[in-house]
Structure formats: structure tokens, C-alpha cells
Amino acid sequence: MTLKPMADRVIIKRVEAQETTKGGILLASAAQEKPQIYTVVAVGPGGIVDGNEVTMTLKVGDTVITGKYTGTEVKVDGEELTIVRQNDILAVVE
Where are the beta strands (DSSP E) in the chain? Predict the structure, then answer.
């Protein structure tokens, strides 16, 4: 199955959390903090959203940061993805 985002939506995938600390201590999965760093998987076409013209500035492969409780989480073919609006993206990591 393939997801195609509509309008100003972006599909993102979480970047895996580090399993060890800088000192080399292995962390249990429960102790790992989920990062809000994602990779862009798909980008909608933009267009008119709520009466305003939206131009998509993100592209597939960008690394981005979102808010902690942003988006809708979905599971497609065993892969966990999140669907957000472009304006829910806080920053692009360069």
C-alpha cells in the first residue's frame, strides 16, 4: 500500500533513537526518549487550504523537527509513519 498526502500534508518517518549514551551505556527501550526528528517520506501538492495559497517548501528526504504531540500516526506495511501539515514542521535540519 502507498500513501499519497493531500493538499498541505506531509508524511514523515521517525529517525531511530540512539540505543547507547555518549558514555557507552546501553539504554532499555523504555528509557529511550523518542526524538521529534523525522525524515520526509512524501509531500502533498499544496494548493488552496482554508482559503490561503500554500506552496510546499519541503521535499522528500528532508530531515525535520516537529512538535512532541503533532500529527496522526499510521502503520502501513509494518512501517510507522506520521501525517502532519506542513505548518506543523518546526524546522528543517541542515
Answer: 9-14, 37-43, 47-49, 52-54, 63-66, 72-76, 79-85, 89-93
